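Hi F.,

I've been meaning to write this up properly since the lab meeting, where we talked about keeping a consistent format for the predictions we share between groups. The idea is simple: the sequence comes first, exactly as it goes in, then the structure tokens exactly as they come out, then a line or two of notes. No screenshots and no reformatting. I'm using this chain as the first example so we have something concrete to point to.
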Amino acid sequence: MSSLQMVPTPNIFSLVKGSGEGNMVLNAFDQALLNAGVGDTNLMRMSSIVPPACELVDKIVLPKGALIPIAYAQIGSDVPGTVLSAAIAVGIPEDPTEAGVIMEHEDEKPLVEVEKTVRKMAVDAFEYRNRKLKEVLSIGIEHTVVNKGSAFAAAVLWYK
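Output, unedited:
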């Protein structure tokens, strides 16, 4: 039996982040997506696996309206003064034939705490997979709510 794929397996990924303010929390989330460069796409939230040999690139030009595989952390609030942080960490395996992992975390805490937690999550994911970790990449953003705010960090997967 052949292994037919409905969607090609991504071979590149990029780390993005953004924050925003809006008249409603959902508008703030939309602003954060625009700020991160993914606001004119349809996000397909996925579980958190990086395909084997997937290559990190600085930026991916995404077609408007495209269905984009993405793993993300997002947090929003309508309480002025609230500190919002969203971060992701990507564990890259030593063996390029193995899959990597993406961990997401968001909280009403400073970014340094949220990013420390998400990086530990990536290390833990490799430990219970009995897989050797080459490196952990991470990206995050902190936002203090003015009116209604949002923070967003993601790993965008795509095709070269």
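Notes:
The domain at 12-158 is CATH 3.50.20.10 (Pyruvoyl-Dependent Histidine Decarboxylase; Chain B).
The chain has one domain: 12-158.

If this format works for you, I'll send the rest the same way.

G.
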